[in-house]
User: Fold these one by one.
Assistant:
Number 1:
Amino acid sequence: MSTLTRSLPLLAALLALVLFPLFGSSFYVGLVTRIIIIAIFAMSLDLLIGYTGLVSFGHAAFFGIGGYALAIAFQDASVIHLWQALPLSLFAAALAALVVGWVSIRTSGIYFIMITLALSQMFFYYFFESPRYGGDDGIFLFLKPVLMVGSEDILNLDHENNFYYFALSCLVLGYLFLVMILQAPFGKVIKAIKVNEHRVRALGYSTNGYKLVSFVIAGTLAGLAGFLEGAHTGYINPAYMSWHESGVCIAIVILGGVGTLYGPIVGAFIIVLLQNFLPEFTEHWQLLLGGIVIAVVLFLPRGATSLLPRIRSLIRMEKSISLSQEEKAKGDADG
Amino acid sequence: MARQVQDLIIEAQGLHTYYGDSHILHGISVSIGPGETLSLMGRNGMGKTTLLRSLLGLTPPRRGTVKIYGRDMTGAPPEKIVRQGIAFVPEDRGIFPNLTVRENLVMAARPGPDGRKDWDLTRVLDTFPRLAQRMTNMGNHLSGGEQQMLTVGRALMTNPDLLILDEATEGLAPLIRKEIWSVVRQIKQSGIAAVIVDKDIKALLELADRNIIISKGRIVYEGSSKELAANPEIHIQHLGV
């Protein structure tokens, strides 16, 4: 299968997303913006789970820190300059990921899960119990970031459509960035680490450095998502950092398809849409949501996005079966 | 620190290695000089692979010392040890199934510790023309023989001074075996030292300068191929053949 046919569904999806605000009402544009933000968050976790083999159960901490950095630094500002706020959020998330990663990559398997969980809960409780930062009420932001040159604003995120396209650009650039690093030598080493870390060390690579860089990249991207969420809703609270959010993020990655990058984007659509519309049918909607997740894991163990290649290979199999039957029939006739 | 030409690549003394409570190596001392080919023989479970893993730092010895080019590297992480110019071809082949043949090879590429770049992708593919036809295959979409060639090729991409082969021909068809042995011969001729573990005693005697037989974690015999070939009772006693 050529690269083009493989990326065709992706390009079609991108086109649909680009055109969406022309047709969708502002409520739906806002909803899809939220999905895009969650997609960036989940995609960043896929770099760890799907490519590096690190199941982080504390990824929400970096999402929260991205949002808090924005809210703490700019809650009383008269204008939020995008070029100041965004790098600050990314830096804060990267720094937190560096510290958490430095401690946790020394462990593996279940211990890695436990230590990332524990460290992220420390961040959660720090903000939960800090009256300065609003405690469990969190922080409100009354302004949206703007990009200004002189006194002219080039990009004002106050408009829903502007925000939508900004978030979409972040998703696309984030995706391309991850594709690029995965194709670089660095990406090959982390993929190899996922299969067998000992083997990579026996080839002469100091694997801890690679795992740490991967962890920091993922954390920074999660921080980008947190920044967008804080800016979009104008509100950030500790719940964004809780282990519950980390768990939902893992579920999104698994549901969409681990180790694909686009799988988590699809997963984000499925989960956020279900979270929004299931409650309309029943108050026990979480039960239904759980059932759907279980069904996907059972019947599509490689995630919802494995459905398409599966159908393709089924069609191809049908074809080759009918071809071989024809040949057989022909052979029988000849014989 | 400048390397002396006469320095031994590996000089290990009195290695005692354990897996948990089980004592596997009982004070083994072994050395490999530049360009030398050493064979390791012994029945299954006698500690051959453990010895290799101890030398490489994959299973560090509890007692004893490992010197690489005269420098004490006991307890150093495997990546530091192999960076001194050692390449390891493990028993299970160790292909990365989620990388293509090309990626498997290229990810290992680096100049030797002295800056040598004798082995690059072109030369590895000349040595293993079969791999050249499989460049875009994923690592798990290869026959056993191709996987073995890929592992040896990947090891050569690191431009090693010493190649360690653990059961490189195990489970392969006779023709493929022959191909692997002929490559090992070429490698030997190019001046790369080798430590080879294998069941094919005839091939080992032909290649090796020196042979070591291990039994129950101890060296029970050490001698030249000529001597070992002349004394078949040694094989019978320690190898059961």
Note: Chain A touches chain B at residues 185, 188-189, 191-192, 194-196, 198-199, 201-207 (CB under 8 Å).
Number 2:
Amino acid sequence: MKNIHQYITIIMLLVITAAFSLITPQFFSFQNFTNILIQGSSLAIVATGMTFVIITRGIDLSVGSTMFLAGVISGKMVVADTNLWLACLLILLIGILFGYINASLIYRFKVVPFIVTLATFYMGRGLGLFISETRAVNLPDVFLSIGTSRILGIPFPIAILFFVVLIAHLVLTQTAYGTRVYAVGNSVEKARKAGLPIRQVVLSAYIICGFLAALGGFVAIAQLGAISPSFGMNSELMAISAVVLGGTSLYGGQGNVFPGTLVGALTIQTLQNGLVMINANPYVYPIVTGLVIFTIVLMDSLKHRKNTRSLQTFP
Amino acid sequence: MFLEIQRVTKNFGDVSVLKDINLALKKGTILGLVGENGAGKSTLMNILGGIHQPSSGKIIFEDKSFTPTSPSDSLRAGISLVHQELNLFYNLSINENLHITGFPHKKVGGLSILDQKTARIKTERLLSAVGLDIDPTAIVGDLSSAQKQLVEIAKALSTSPRLIIFDEPKTSLTKYEADNLFRLIQELKSQQTTIIYISHNLDDVIQLGDQISVLRDGVLVNTYNREDKIGTSQLINDMIGRELNHFYPIRNTKPEEETIFQTNGIYAKGLLNDITFELKKKEVLGLYGLVGAGRSEMVRALYGLDALDGGSISWKNEEVLHPTPANWVRKKVALLTEDRGEDGLLPDDTMEKNIALASLPTYSKNPGSIVNWRELKKNILKTVQATKIKYHSLTDQSVKLLSGGNQQKVILSKWLLTEPELLIIDEPTRGIDIGAKYDIYDLINKLVENGMSVLMVSSEIEELIGMCDRILVMKQGTISNEFKKQDFNRSAILEAALHTSE
């Protein structure tokens, strides 16, 4: 029964899909589903990284700023005629650096993840605005051509998404490292007593998160062709929502990328896409998204309460 | 010698929990380790397990100096621990728990991934060794207590250790499973594995131990060999030790007839069972029990910090329908929890703020109005003088800079300021020096003389005998015995709390 939560999200995704399909026939088409996947790929990639962090019982609020800052710096460099591939590499390096800074502060100085990443959230955004002088950075067409290219016949964003989800899924389920991520999320104290390398686990989780945030940012930029000053705003909240919708517990130690986070991200994207299609008032989007998240999180909380209760038994 | 502990001492802050321990163990033998709560058994075990480091002294393991700085050092050296508080990840499967420190790997196309099949075969072998017939992919959180305990034991075996330390390994096991465990221990011994077996069950220790050591207040008081044919009564004497001296101040009042607090059939699933007792006005009622007997759980539940599943509580002959901390404070019932750091103190704040905290409602008309600080400060000063706290500033010094004894006095002052009618106090003097202890006892007596009642939870029998009018003994979540003042006897109380079958 431990996966009932995931079924709930999958069922919800199917219900939402069915509902929109009934309201507007254009919704139910191969083309539109491909669109949803393409539009949702950036979010799903960022959320995949977030899943690692949340399983360790942490949180990373800085992913949106990471996306923005990494994009702005490399965008500026490309505009200044730096080699395109070097710029792409730089985006990812900035993501890794962000993750490293977050994890170091959290692990070394024992500051709670929420506060550490709240600080880097502001600093990243601020630095990005400073560098871009709060103007949009328009990128050369090569970026767009990457975004619209195909790998083995699959649109670039979808190919990257599938690759990321596949690797993340294998890491979490098929490696000793993955098992330790869950162990640390269950109890740092127990992990310490068991002699697990806690520092390595925490550090890597945030680095993976930063790296995937930057990669997700890159995938989005390659579709947009420009970086507006609001690029990446709210991405951290969307990513956290996707993770939680996918059944990963904010209490740590539970959850997965596949199907969990992938389904969570697609649910959010499908909602947005469907609401646009039926010409809903744009102000309604956040309300609907909020309601869906609230329902799912409520279930998580109830489940968690039941679990902790059953854990308290006599020695 | 296989293992030699030489003059090992361990201090936590000013408190020394192990003093000059010397112990030697031959390969392939079993050492039984006994002692009261807080005697230092777990600390000794944690030092061998690399969780704590000794303050001084030396350990020789397999003829080499052994200084583990982390649990993984000890594991690598060949030492496994079976923790009483099971060190299992409840969100993972049995298989994953057993291999968490070292999964077998295989190469697939150049990548190194987990070898699930090899892991599973090993898990099945280990589970059958401990007599557990269950699917290795079952999630540990879904298992029964006994199954969890067996998994913990299987995990200790998984690294093929040469020294295994068992800390109360059979508390949740049935007779059949326990017999199985003992067979396993004998088998390990015959394969030259050395074993340290820590338990309150003296019969078990006598049955298993080639050598039995008794710890008391951090000192190794005696070591016996199997040939000594030692009995449980001798061990109990060693565990208790010195005669009760006249260390406890005398109280000049006796409990009155009026019952002010009463519980009836208190029940919390898996924790507490049918707890019924009453408390008289001006009475000091003691509550004794071993770790895990449910003492702290009971007071927490009574005070509304944890949930109750049934039973009733009455205060001054009136049933308390909603026992929440806020309601109890209003009824002038105060609780001092055992964990000063977690529940009781704001370590970074000043003494004044800490002490004022619980009384703020009394000194302001309603939550929105201004606090009468003048009056409050005057009374804080009075209370602080009564508790004899050693400090240099009420308003400038954060309480974390005070010693443990003075911190405890700060918490006590905080509740005294609310002028409680009932004080529930959990481990009032844990980790506190003798002088401060006396002050606290003296203060409690004065308050009782002024009309207060006390429910005192403690793992120190002496303290309860010295202070209480009556002592309740808890065992496995229920009250198993009651001792009146004229029947106070340390051996009898300890025996009532132990699991001996005599």
Note: The first strand of chain B starts at residue 3 and ends at 12.
